């Protein structure tokens, strides 16, 4: 399963975690939920960038993606926000929120990654571009201090990432 599935299960199983809803200029995929993103055109997205409306934003393969700033309201010791974003965005979050915990999910094999990417209905050139990016993204994530978790089995992965988050929250919030 992809990181989107891991992210939503993490929020279902940890009531103190809330998933941020990103903005994107990507077209909605067939069968994709209408609230998977706030789907906007480039003019809307760029206007929000100009108005300083994002915690972070990035181009990812021809489309814009960003985390709207109201997400900040969730940050505290009883409520945390989960961002399911690419590594360029994670680097920006690290700058603005140095205490953010960054996790990179590593596919168990290239074959499995290919299978997951092909299962979403994107065209072949997009799938290939994402395959080419994958290793670079993992290395870039590790370079900004991300913890690597192998995404081999959904329940095991959700448990491991949940444990990493809980440990970080307990450590940070023990004295507050
Ligand atoms: P997809 O088009 O497959 O939904 O997402 C493409 C990539 O954009 C994924 O790596 C996803 O994690 C990332 N992404 C989704 N939302 C955001 C966001 O708000 N900011 C950034 N920087 N990346 C995002």
Helices and strands in order:
Blueprint: H1 3-13, E1 17-19, E2 23-24, E3 38-39, H2 42-50, E4 54-60, E5 63-68, E6 80-82, H3 87-96, E7 103-106, H4 110-118, H5 124-143, E8 147-150, H6 154-173
Parallel strand pairs: 1-6, 2-3, 7-8
Antiparallel strand pairs: 2-5, 4-5
The structure holds guanosine-5'-monophosphate.
The site of guanosine-5'-monophosphate (5GP) has 13 residues, from strand 4, strand 5 and helix 3.
Your description of this structure?
The protein is α/β, with parallel strands linked by helices and 176 residues long. It has one domain: P-loop containing nucleotide triphosphate hydrolases (Rossmann fold), CATH 3.40.50.300. Helices cover 45% and strands 18% of the residues. The chain is globular and about 50 Å long. The termini are far apart. The relative contact order is 0.16.
């Amino acid at each position: 399963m992809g990181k989107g599935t891991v992210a939503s299960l993490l929020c279902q199983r940890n009531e103190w975690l809330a998933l941020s809803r990103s903005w994107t200029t990507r077209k909605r995929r067939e069968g994709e939920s209408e609230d998977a993103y706030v789907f906007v055109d480039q003019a809307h997205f760029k206007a929000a960038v100009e108005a300083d409306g994002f915690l972070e934003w990035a181009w990812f393969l021809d489309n814009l993606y960003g985390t709207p700033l109201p997400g900040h309201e969730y940050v505290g010791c009883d409520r945390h926000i989960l961002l399911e974003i690419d590594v360029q965005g994670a680097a920006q979050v690290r700058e603005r929120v140095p205490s953010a915990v960054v996790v990179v999910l590593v596919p168990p094999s290239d074959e499995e990654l290919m299978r997951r990417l092909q299962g979403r209905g994107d065209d072949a050139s997009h799938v290939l571009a994402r395959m080419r990016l994958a290793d670079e993204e993992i290395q870039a994530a590790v370079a900004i201090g991300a913890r690597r978790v192998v995404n081999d089995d959904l329940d095991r992965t959700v448990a491991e990432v949940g444990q990493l988050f809980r440990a970080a929250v307990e450590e940070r919030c023990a004295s507050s």
